[in-house]
């Protein structure tokens, strides 16, 4: 664990100077994520003709695709964390993830249906590498007994809300008032800013999250081999889908993915409870953790409706006129992050 920044270089609100690097990277990543997310369902359900044409898909199909996308974003944090722990290190995972996210947004900016899905895949993969690992590095900036860690995460949390506010303001305006792909492109530019500043200030992180966990060379070689095989399989599946070699019903896939996630989570908690050798106190804590897990899942399921069913409702049934100006639909979403910052 890196500790060189905890005492000598307290240059960011009394915290390790490396927190500034992570703060800005997270801010730009959240700007790109929430900015693009606000446009996604609106673009998919937009009319094929007229000003600012969309893809013309049904709201049911669009919301299913959106649900798959958001679910995959959360799910891919697991393999992203595994890669960082065992092969890449957290710093490289964050950098590679940020680059892939930017590539995804720029791919979305291309006005083609094939590039639309490819762009979503890039954003999912990049977010899986970046999201969990950047939070891990925050913790590694502090010693185990450093009381500032909790407030450091509070500062880091502000980056999420500042970035999402910027994304809603900028990307929603460009996407809805000028053209959808301008909004997607703006998200890519924002993430590019994050990549540049991370590269330029990565040295401020010191050794925090720089190296993967130490393991035997023979085991690491096996992990590398399995990772390469997995990548080949994943690329083959993606390319086959983009070339139209097979089709997927988005609604059925979304339902199946939901049951898959429930099965995996339930099996994992049951395994820990019965077979992990926990004592009675630890089992009670595990039950509490499971209840919190269910509550968090329910909360985020509702929260993410803001860019899905609630956006469609706002478009179709809400008066968006303010003093004669029709505000972008995405602007209705930035009240939450603004009040969090305040």
Automatic annotation (TrEMBL):
Keywords, alphabetical: Cell membrane, Membrane, Transmembrane, Transmembrane helix, Transport
Subcellular location: Cell membrane
MF-aspect GO terms: peptide transmembrane transporter activity
Main location: membrane
GO cellular component: plasma membrane
PROSITE patterns the record matches: PTR2_1 (PS01022)
PANTHER family: PROTON-DEPENDENT OLIGOPEPTIDE FAMILY TRANSPORT PROTEIN (PTHR23517:SF15), RESISTANCE PROTEIN MDTM, PUTATIVE-RELATED-RELATED (PTHR23517)
Protein name (database record): Major facilitator superfamily (MFS) profile domain-containing protein
Species name: marine metagenome
Organismal lineage: unclassified sequences, metagenomes, ecological metagenomes
